[in-house]
Amino acid sequence: MYNRIALIIVFLVLPWIALAEADDRVTVEFAEPDRYLDAGDRPRDKERNLNSIEGFLAAEVGRCLHEGERVEIRVFDIDLAGRFEWWHRPEGVRILRNIDFPRMKLEYELFDADGQVADERREWITDMDYLDRGTRLPARRALVHEERMIRDWARLRFCRRSG
Questions:
Q1: Judging by DSSP bridges, how do beta strands 103-111 and 70-79 pair with one another?
Q2: Cα 101 from Cα 87, distance rounded (Å)
Q3: How far is CA 111 from CA 24, 70, 152, 158, in A?
Q4: Are 81 and 37 spatial neighbours (Cβ–Cβ below 8 Å)?
Q5: 105 three-class SS
Q6: What is the pTM of this model?
């Protein structure tokens, strides 16, 4: 019984510890979020989604940083996977199709341990094959496709560098 409770606590607390560790090395700024193509269907969804995306970015990029490095990320646009169709059911539903893949326009600056800019880019990150790839994340979890897109991008840009 106690082992089960301890495991539940560990699985609930460890992700927050990882996010807290990454927060001081990764800053995320959302530039004009009211102008984003699709960050959520309703205002409360948009706020929740932006908070989640900020956490994904901080955790995934922070996981790959070397000692003393930090990253500043500015997000200019977000287009979530699928399209919200308000005419389905009373509250509407998000329909996923191949043409409505997740994407995000951002720029980042990577600073080395001496505070010098080591890398900087402005790019669209996308996952055009999001429906063709399996996912290990629970299907009921929000933003599973965006989280995978961010994870793949962070590994490509930050984890595969030589130390």
A1: antiparallel
A2: 21
A3: 13, 5, 21, 12
A4: no
A5: strand
A6: 0.80
Best CA proximity match to 27, nearest among 70, 76, 91: 70
Of how many residues is the chain composed? 163
pLDDT per residue as tens digits for the range 30-82: 999 999 999 988 888 899 999 999 999 999 999 999 999 999 999 999 999 98
The residues with which 26 forms a beta bridge, in sequence order, are: 71
Rounded to an integer, what distance in angstroms lies between the CA atom of residue 139 and that of residue 47?
Answer: 21
> What pLDDT digit, counting tens, does each position of 118-155 carry?
999 999 999 999 888 766 655 567 899 999 999 999 99
Q: How big is the chain by its Cα radius of gyration, in Å?
A: 17
* 143 close to 52: Cβ distance less than 8 angstroms: yes
DSSP 33: G
